[in-house]
Amino acid sequence: MNQPLTSVVDLKKAVLYEGSKEAYDALSTAYLDYTFQEEFLLYAIIMANKYEYPQAYFDVYFWLTQTFSSDINNIDESSANLAIEYLIKASEKNHRQAKEIVEEYAIVYNERKNKEQILKIFE
Asked: Is pTM beyond 0.90 here?
């Protein structure tokens, strides 16, 4: 149902080698049909780090936390640190949803309290 007109392989190449926002967005939609949607995290990290795409920064936060959604208390400190770091970067790049979360929960990067901040968001 969410499969794009362009092949997923071509979309992945366009994301990895060209930084195509259109391909990234199409790939994001395509992954909604995947059993392990968290695999999209790889493409989000690359699109954020290499091409500084605001949506990708937010997606890194989203998929890291989504991985632990069945019990957010199980998120490890390193994953919480990474999630908060990317959430803040998304906010700094004016991603609307990220800005709302950062402002509503007064999120700041604090390596010793990032897990607490994640838990507060998901209460």
From this structure: yes
